[in-house]
Design goal:
Elements: E1 7-10, H1 16-26, E2 32-36, H2 37-43, H3 46-52, E3 56-63, H4 67-79, E4 84-88, H5 93-102, E5 107-110, H6 126-136, E6 140-142, H7 148-158, E7 162-166, H8 175-181, E8 185-188, H9 190-193, H10 198-212
Parallel strand pairs: 1-2, 1-8, 2-3, 3-4, 4-5, 5-6, 6-7, 7-8
The structure holds 6-(methoxycarbonyl)uridine 5'-(dihydrogen phosphate).
Length: 214
């Protein structure tokens, strides 16, 4: 995955035509595309294959099952051309390890979630989830741009693994805060795809990221 704008587009649109329109507008300004259930259910799994020809695709199914089912899901996602997948860690180390094995390490594990409810159940165990991700050999973790101080805390646990960080824009987090706290990439959805001008929205975010790296 390239590390240029440090923006991962969360492409949570619900039609193939919207997906194509947004990707065409921002493809030079994002490093990867994250595809979640809304688009997969609306456009069919083949959308992953189509998008993977344009950019690295991270399949965000937030996989959370027993090891065998996790393995089967990851194998299907990788066969469609995904570069990486996202799983939950609360299912335990055997389930996460099954994802890591099936994706040859290309797994991001969700830790503390970015929305208010993320404080209820994920926040209290986020440090342990991060440690589990590290022990399982995952590529990185997902950590909240809405609470940049938590990105810094989790960075101390995982060392040089990657942090991808949602919650910028629509959820109130700031790109610069997340990057300064130690995120490698920000994940941005609505602030780009709901913008009347997705290209300039992505450009502005990329400029903010660049500034915060100075
Ligand atoms: O920028 P938004 O708020 O429109 O979209 C954020 C995206 O990040 C959306 O696809 C969410 O599913 C995802 N996300 C969160 O918002 N919070 C989390 O804690 C975790 C994720 C995520 O990407 O997990 C992998």
């Amino acid at each position: 995955m390239q590390k240029s704008s440090r923006i991962i587009l969360a492409l949570d649109v619900t039609s193939r035509s919207d997906a194509r329109r947004v990707v065409e507008a921002v493809r030079d300004h994002v490093d990867a595309i994250k595809v979640n259930w809304p688009l997969i259910l609306a456009a069919g799994p083949e959308i992953v294959r189509e998008l993977s020809k344009v950019k690295d695709v991270i399949c965000d199914m937030k996989i959370a099952d027993i090891p065998n089912t996790n393995r089967l899901i990851v194998e299907q996602a990788m066969a469609l051309g995904a570069s990486a997948v996202i799983c939950h860690g609360f299912t335990g180390d055997d389930s996460v390890k099954a994802c890591v094995d099936a994706a040859k390490g290309q797994v991001f594990v969700v830790t503390e979630m970015s929305h208010p409810g993320g404080r209820q159940f994920t926040a209290p165990v986020a440090d342990r989830l991060a440690a589990l991700a590290k022990a399982a050999g995952a590529r990185g973790i997902v950590a909240p741009a809405t609470r940049p101080e938590r990105i810094a805390d989790l960075r101390r646990i995982i060392g040089d693994m990657e942090i991808i960080s949602p919650g910028v824009g629509a959820q109130g987090g700031r790109a610069s805060d997340a990057i300064r706290a130690g995120a490698d990439y920000i994940i941005v959805g609505r602030a780009i795809y709901e913008s009347p001008d997705p290209k300039s929205a992505a450009e502005k975010l990329a400029a903010e990221v660049k500034d915060s790296l100075r």
